[in-house]
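Render 2-dehydro-3-deoxy-phosphogluconate aldolase in 3D.
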Amino acid sequence: SLDGLKAAASKAPIVPVLVVPDVAAAAPLANALVEGGLTTAEVTLRTPSGLKVIEEMKKACPELIVGAGTVLTGEDVRNSLAAGADFLVSPGMSPRLLDALGDHKDVTIPGVATASEAMTRYEEGFGMLKLFPAAIAGGVAALKALSGPLPHLQFMPTGGVSADNAGEYLALPNVVAVGGSWIATEKDVSSGAWADVTSKAKTALSKI
Ligand code: 3PG
């Protein structure tokens, strides 16, 4: 289930979305995030190293809830779970991915951009949804509007979330957490700017 993620998000509701090409960065990155007060991370499968990075981050920081992002195929689902991912995130849904998710819908946060998509995912058994790309799909105003007719849906908006607007999203009753790449950018990761990552995490948490 997503209970681990929800418990972690109740302490620190910002999920850094990570692109980590170099497995050696996994441990110092995990430590930098935890040092900054974060409790969760999403490692995208946009690099072939993603799966190994999930393993290494969990090894370095067993208390960190680590999910796999950019899960697009059945192979991604199987590999992510085998690597120890605590949750799965996809930018949207496809018939084949839905099939492959089978019994794992309860650990998956699929991307949606409209009320119809949200209703469909809920009917299929997904409890938490990622509004994506959040800023383009209407941002805070869209989530506010959706909470009227669909108050039972919970969201993790991602895409265009920043330190400046994370608080506005998190003030909404239907937002459990926000995701974003700004805490640890590809540049931060490739240059090993761990102190900056920690400081951005602390700043973001202090503003919400
Ligand atoms: C992504 O898929 O890269 C995430 O949505 C992050 O979006 P952001 O770079 O706008 O935070």
